Amino acid sequence: MSHDPNPAQTLSAGLSDTATKAAGQESLAPQQTRIMGRTSYLLAWFGGCVSIGTFTMGSSVVGTLNLVQATLAIAIGCFVIGIALALNGAAGYKYGIPFMVQARSAFGFSGTRLPGLVRAVPAIVWYGFQSWIGAGALNMVSATLFGFDNLIFYFIAFQFLQIALSVTGFQGIKWLENIGSAFILASLVYMFYSTVQRYGDQLSTSMLTMDGSWGMPFWGATMLFLGIYSTMMLNVSDYSREHKEGSGPGLLTTLYAMSILPCTLFMGLIGYMVSEATGVADPIKVFANAVDNTPLLMTTLLFIAFAQVTTNVLNNVVPPTYVLMDTFKLKYRTATVVVGLLAFATFPWELVKDESAAGLQVFVQTYSAFLGPIFAILVVDYYLIRRRTLDLGKLYDESGPYRGVNLGAVIATLVGVIAAFSLSTVSWYASLIPAGLTYFLLMKYWSPCQRFCS
């Protein structure tokens, strides 16, 4: 990998230069240009968090939680997300480095392939899943208005459209997310209203009067909605390095939480209510039945398609792209094309079936069991081991102290994974302390880890 011969000088330039960088000009070097202010950054996260998987997560808690419990579970999950993003994004925000560089101080140059792979696989799966959903929405618009019904055609075309948008990098992402946010919010409000209007009578009694659970199922539900974003908690530095300096930890936490909460709340509750009333988890089928007015149905379906684009290009393209850039030394644009092609191989048509809602729940719980320990290790490494001070020269020196693999990080990850699977309902929560504590003790007292402390 090519890197700046003087990372500290590059960092200084990056923090002072606020000019607009060229589209697709992305690298793993310390960020030279910050292109997002507070409003732009909030809107980017808002537009990028419209995960259709949230519908499915809402569907999966039907029969377990009542409406109040489901609402609180979503809200708690979102504020935990906000805190986690601010904590783990601090290194990227301060030093302008991406996740794959940040992870070197804990895992080593070769060891970063572990967190990189764990982050990349869920992103590519969600990429394919959400692309199929978006293509299905476009196909329904086409079939209704023009009589042309060919889902495979729209899936392929939709995927290549997203690949074309992805190669523009964060410059394109910024404008796509910012411009699309108003349409997304208006559409979500309307979709929520139409759902209540259509199913309100049959929902009111069952949703509010059932006892539900305030125990493990409730906390498990907070983790489900949190788990959708647990991937982003890991690589948040990829985004925070684009945010202009001047925002403290408290403000950043608020920006993250308040950008994620509206979309997650609306979409989770829509999925919950419609699934309770109809037993259907596929959002395309849901809104085909929920909306009687054709123009409004078209608007809703176009929203679903557009939302997949805004979510995929931010959350499901950038992380695996940086992983490929680091592992295989690919250029940014080449890596985004490869990621887009890999999404074809996720068989998303199987993931959208009604019976797949439970499977997606298991999928989120499973990858969260791996993401939680890695998150804990990165936070412990930055705050307790490094004391929020990183040596960029060493992070970019392949023959320096971070060469190879840090066995302490690998062992701590495995300990966290075991703890997570022992309490799979709250796998992400359960993994944090075991993984973080194990990593801290090994770094302090196990000699093979001492090289990584330098």
Secondary structure blueprint with pairings:
Layout (H helix, E strand, L loop, with lengths): L6 H10 L21 H11 L4 H8 L6 H22 L1 H6 L3 H4 L1 H4 L5 H34 L4 H16 L2 H41 L6 H12 L2 H5 L2 H4 L8 H30 L4 H8 L3 H35 L3 H11 L5 H4 L5 H29 L6 H4 L11 H16 L4 H19 L9
Helix pairs in contact: 2-10, 2-14, 2-16, 3-14, 3-19, 4-11, 4-14, 8-9, 8-16, 8-19, 9-16, 9-17, 10-14, 10-16, 16-17, 19-21, 19-22, 21-22
- Secondary-structure-based class equals mainly alpha
The number of domains is 1
What string, H for helix and E for strand, traces the elements in order?
HHHHHHHHHHHHHHHHHHHHHH
CATH superfamily: Hydantoin permease
- In the CATH hierarchy, the third-tier topology is known as Hydantoin permease
Instruction: Kindly report how far apart the N and C termini lie.
Output: 22 Å
Q: How large is the count of helical segments? A: 22
Q: Unreliable stretches, pLDDT < 50, 5 or more residues? A: 1-18
Task: Give a short account of the largest sheet.
Answer: none
Sheet-strand content, in percent, reads under 5%
Number of strands: 0
Helix content: over 70%
> What form results from the Cα inertia axes?
globular
CA-based gyration radius? 22 Å
Broad CATH class: Mainly Alpha
CATH architecture field: Orthogonal Bundle
Average pLDDT confidence is: 86
Keywords: Membrane, Transmembrane, Transmembrane helix
Transmembrane segments: 41-62, 68-93, 114-133, 145-167, 179-196, 216-234, 255-275, 295-318, 330-347, 367-385, 405-422, 428-446
Membrane topology: Multi-pass membrane protein
InterPro entries: Pur-cyt_permease, Uracil/uridine/allantoin_perm
